[in-house]
Design brief:
The protein is α/β, with parallel strands linked by helices. It has 2 domains: 144 residues, Aspartate Aminotransferase, domain 1, CATH 3.90.1150; 238 residues, Aspartate Aminotransferase, domain 2, CATH 3.40.640.10. The chain has 13 helices and 17 strands. The strands form 4 sheets. Strands 4-12-11-10-7-5-6 form a 7-stranded mixed sheet, with helices on both faces. It is globular and about 60 Å long. The structure holds pyridoxal-5'-phosphate. The site of pyridoxal-5'-phosphate has 13 residues, from helix 5.
């Protein structure tokens, strides 16, 4: 039996697999069993942000594995402590709670917000339509997309949605009872749309007026992806809580909730916990990630590469005006909105050009290339996409 037939037989059918059998991945490329080489713009859905298996991350992980791989949260561990220190010293946060995934970071935020709400006598939590905050039942209630929610109702109560970037819609749901607002600075799943400065400014004014919390879901946008270490830095505000995951563990499962100083006493021992959270090996990967991102000029380079991809895509749009409707970019988070559904294009790119592109919201190509993508690889990518569209 082939890998794909065994996969179909033995693994619960929740994912649509692409038809290649991977044997190796390095940098911007994936290699299959037949010796084919593919240019990858999925990057593990922004998990492998620094390219596949960079040596310094592999070394950091191996190094920690040789010492100890798990000790439980009865003990402090050096990699988790070091990673928390790096995150706190380079953000507006005061402390970190480590999780194993994005949805768990969202759950931790939800629990913290709910407990805070008990003290404040408030309970209404808001998030945006078309948002994505995870798939466990709590975070799913925040994920403002009926296609993910409908089979699982009733979800948790007291959560309402507003239209992203629509100030009137936000104003119509915010009031004295508003406890917290979850928001992505760039909606990833929702089609790669950045929040506007006006919207954030209004949200921050309303926070001041009503005293609610702003929870930034930076699971996808954080850690350099949107061009800054954290995407909130491009706006004029500080979130009260920040959710991280995806690339945080350098390819290993790891998430985190960054907590501001005024909320650092809300969770007390026993209020929340996870067996694997802060796993030393994942956190050793995370320390290597943070140290790379904090190298001088590293983040500036991301913006420059983002601009290069954007201008190259604009030229491609001029060449294929009936195919490309709009190009949206924030750092190296890039959306190409098409006039039609993207699945045929995706399959053609894979078969004919050995190019791996992801489609979200049916008609948006979502590119999450390596933050270390070279100018030459950008050129190759543009040529391949041009060929597919021609
Ligand atoms: C991926 C993602 C999540 C969920 O993370 P998981 O690790 O899959 O649970 C939540 N929010 C955003 C913005 C994401 O991109």
């Amino acid at each position: 039996m082939t890998l794909h037939s065994r996969d179909k037989r033995y693994i619960v059918n929740t994912y649509n697999r692409l038809p290649i059998e991977i044997v190796k991945a390095k940098g911007s490329y994936i290699y299959d069993i037949d010796g084919e080489k593919y240019l990858d713009t999925f990057m593990g859905i922004s998990v492998n942000n620094l390219g596949h298996n960079p040596d310094y991350i592999v070394d950091a992980i191996k190094n920690q594995l040789d010492k100890y791989s798990h000790v439980s949260n009865y003990f402090a561990n050096e990699p988790a402590t070091k990673l928390a220190e790096l995150l706190v010293e380079n953000s507006c946060a005061h402390q970190v709670f480590f999780t194993n995934s994005g949805t768990e970071a969202t759950e931790a935020a939800l629990k913290l917000v709910k407990k805070y709400g008990k003290m404040q006598g408030k309970k209404i939590i808001l998030s945006a339509n078309k948002s994505f905050h995870g798939r466990t039942t709590g975070s799913l209630a925040l994920t403002g997309q009926a296609k993910y929610q409908d089979s699982f109702r009733p979800l948790i109560e007291d959560i309402y949605h507003f239209d992203y970037n629509d100030i009137k819609s936000l104003e119509s749901v915010v009031n004295e009872d508003t406890l917290g607002v979850f928001i992505e600075l760039v909606q990833g799943e929702g089609g790669v749309t950045a929040v506007t400065k006006e919207f954030i400014n209004r949200l921050v004014e309303l926070r001041k007026q009503y005293g609610f919390l702003i929870i930034a879901d930076e699971i996808q946008t954080g850690l350099g992806r949107a061009g800054d270490l954290f995407a909130y830095e491009a706006y004029d505000f500080k979130p009260d809580l920040i959710c991280l995951a995806k690339s945080l563990g350098g390819g290993l499962p790891l998430g985190g909730l960054l907590v501001s100083e005024n909320l650092s006493e809300v969770f007390q021992p026993g209020d929340h916990g996870t067996t694997f959270g802060g796993n030393p090996v994942s956190c050793a990967g995370g320390v290597a990630v943070l140290e790379k991102l904090l190298e001088p000029k590293f983040l500036d380079e991301i913006k420059i590469k983002g601009e290069l991809i954007k201008s190259s895509l604009r030229k491609l749009q001029e060449k294929h005006p009936s195919k490309i409707k709009e190009i949206r970019c924030k750092g190296l988070m890039i959306g190409i909105e098409l006039f039609e559904e993207g699945i045929t294009l995706r399959n053609k790119a894979l078969k004919e050009e050995n190019l791996l592109i992801n489609i979200t919201s049916k008609n948006v190509i979502r590119l999450l290339p390596s933050l270390e993508i070279t100018n030459e690889e950008i050129q190759t990518f543009i040529e391949k996409l041009d060929n597919v569209m021609s």
